[in-house]
Amino acid sequence: MTDQYSSDNPYGQQPAGHTPQYGAPAPTGPDGEPPLWAPWYGISFGGAVRRFFKKYARFDGRASRSEFWWWYLANTIIGIVLGILYGIGVATSGRSTMTSTTSTSASYQTMITDPSALFIIMAIVIGIWSLAIIVPSIALFWRRLHDANLAGPFWFLGFIPFVGGIILIILAILPSKPEGQRFDQPGRG
Q1: I want to staple 145 with a disulfide (CB 3.0 to 4.6 A). Which of 79, 91, 150, 166 is the partner?
Q2: By percentage, how much of the chain surpasses pLDDT 70?
Q3: pTM as predicted
Q4: Cα 145 to Cα 60, 108, 139, 181, 185, distances in angstroms
């Protein structure tokens, strides 16, 4: 009976110095960036924002945790700035107060009757921004699920009342798994 393994490799491990496929770095293009179908582990803040818009509506491939969370930090900062400017626009707009009373209660309503230019501009900018990022935000989350080796339609769990958002946060936190390579499509570039 012959020995299946040689004496220098008795347990069938990879030879010394061999890097498994999932441990190897992603291939890089001429500019040093991984191709769009590959996740970019350890991406910088600015790189994540640029890559978000480069992969605008790509639901294939994977997105690393750093790609995902850097973009959501950037989007949160943008949302706070837009919200502050909108609030200033509300504060500088003319308002009137209406009072309605019944025999048991009184209610007061404040309505903007003379909107400021900042209020109108910021309402339009917030609407355009929200529409511009809805598809790529869903695509980014979809790719993040792929990196954790989950199917993209798990994103729809977010529609479950009360717990959907919590489920999505937990799924976004999951570590990358090498099995997620099955979602890569190198042929798409």
Answers
A1: 150
A2: 84
A3: 0.77
A4: 11, 47, 10, 12, 15
Phi, psi of 118 (to 5 degrees): -65, -40
For residue 114, give the 3-state DSSP assignment. Answer: strand
Backbone angles phi, psi at 170, to 5 degrees: -60, -45
Task: Report DSSP letters for 2-18, one per residue.
Answer: --SS-TTSTT-PPPTTP
Give me Rg for the CA atoms of the chain.
25
Two structure tokens written together for 43: 């991406």
Q: Cβ distance 95 to 110 under 8 Å?
A: yes
Tens digit of pLDDT for each residue in 23-37?
555 567 777 788 888
Structure tokens of 179? 């099995």
Nearest to residue 60, comparing CAs of 150, 143, 182?
Answer: 143
| 8 Å CB contact between 28 and 34 | yes
Are the beta carbons of 145 and 171 closer than 8 angstroms? yes
Residues 37/185, Cβ–Cβ less than 8 Å: yes
Q: Quick one: residue 149, left, alpha or beta (phi over 0 = left, psi -120 to 50 = alpha)?
A: left
Q: How far separated are the first and last CA of the chain, in Å rounded?
A: 49
The contacts of residue 117 (CB under 8 Å, 6+ apart) are 89
State the pLDDT at residue 67.
Answer: 94
